[in-house]
Design brief:
With 356 residues, this protein is an alpha/beta fold. The chain is globular, with a radius of gyration of 23 Å. The N and C termini lie far apart (69 Å).
């Protein structure tokens, strides 16, 4: 009999990771949905609401390694059949995350083990090519293949021009202009979804992610049904959590809540992959500390001058690179302050011990 978990993307990569665990009584599962500290997980036994051990929940530090939709985990049923404990999160092949929090930004993983990241943007007031660049950079950084869906073509008079603009500035990225409302243009997207593939939908609120999902699933009420099945939520009509669905094609897709803004997270590799032709040129500049602006012998400036690269694309690359450098410097300063504070704390404790 076929492993039921295989339908949820349980490939050999994860089977090998699970087989390396020392506890043979654990059961492999995939996280379907997350609500605070509760995790809906599917395994060969069925669906269960799972929990993390108390010590993990209250452990100080980042929650980026906590389970999220799409994660494969190891469940322990020894305590209670109704609330199994998540003992392990298997290594991730990829992820998509954002920054949340106050002054100290923290990474929040929205979806894990994604092959294709569908970046959905409306061809209405939501259209913003700079935001698309950020999504693509993060997608490359976290190991996903970015695919852009420009939705609401029924509300746009220059769909072709905008799609061409996106394709020109984000080279090598698949771009699809669709109308989810009229179920137009989604066949090409369906062709990318087959058994063994995990995809995720990301974008701002109101871009039509859930409508697209319902069409791909051939179920116009999918989101409503899914919400009614969740034990912790009832009757909501917009996506408020990350949730995983198995499509008729055999692919798995994760729907996510709307993201208001997308900030770069450790994206040096992502920027290089998003602007490969510029990344190749920076190593050809005359000076190693070239700012790639108006310095003599700058290969990037020369490429703009000769028309080899669009000036707008280079301007965007400069801005994003500068933003990343600023974040890195700020992070280094914060780490240095933490180090000094820890040193002062150690000295104070040492002084008190000597007095005693």
């Amino acid at each position: 009999m076929k492993d039921r978990l295989t339908r949820y993307g349980y490939s050999q990569f994860f089977k090998d990771s699970f087989s390396n665990l020392k506890n043979s009584s654990l059961v492999p599962a995939r996280v379907v949905a997350v609500n605070k500290h509760n995790y809906l997980a599917f395994c060969n036994k069925g669906e269960f609401i799972a929990e993390l051990p108390g010590r993990t929940l209250h452990k100080a530090g980042s929650t980026a390694e906590h389970p999220c939709a799409g994660d494969f985990v190891a469940l322990d049923f020894s305590k209670s059949a109704e609330r199994p404990i998540i003992r392990e999160v298997l290594p991730r092949k990829s992820r998509f995350a954002r920054l949340v929090g106050g002054k100290r930004k923290e990474e929040q993983v929205l979806a894990a083990n994604i092959d294709i990241l569908f970046i959905v943007q409306g061809l209405d007031r939501d259209f913003n090519i700079r935001r698309l660049e950020r999504y693509v950079i993060q997608s490359h950084e976290f190991g996903c293949e970015p695919v852009i869906i420009l939705n609401k073509k029924d509300l746009c008079d220059d769909t072709k021009e905008r799609a061409e603009e996106v394709s020109s500035l984000l080279r090598g990225i698949k771009v699809f202009a669709v109308s989810a409302k009229e179920d137009e243009g989604l066949d090409d997207i369906q062709a990318l979804l087959y058994e063994g593939i995990t995809a995720a939908l990301v974008g701002s609120s109101g871009t039509g992610k859930s409508t697209i999902l319902n069409i791909l699933a051939d179920d116009e009420d999918l989101q409503l049904i899914g919400e009614e099945l969740m034990p912790w939520e009832k009757g909501r009509h917009t996506t408020v959590r990350r949730e995983l669905f198995v499509l008729p094609s055999g692919a798995v897709i994760i729907d996510t809540p709307g993201i208001r803004e997308i900030q770069l997270i450790d994206s040096e590799n992502g920027i290089s992959k998003t602007f490969p032709e510029i990344d190749e040129l920076v190593h050809l500049c005359k000076f190693s500390d070239c700012k790639h602006d108006a310095e003599p012998g700058c290969a990037v400036a020369e490429a703009v001058k000769t028309g080899k690269i669009e000036e707008s694309r280079v301007a965007s690359w400069r801005k994003l690179s500068a933003e990343l450098a600023q974040k890195r410097n700020k992070g280094n300063r914060w780490a240095e302050l933490r180090k000094k504070e820890q040193s002062r704390k150690t000295l104070r404790q040492s002084g008190r011990k000597q007095l005693l």
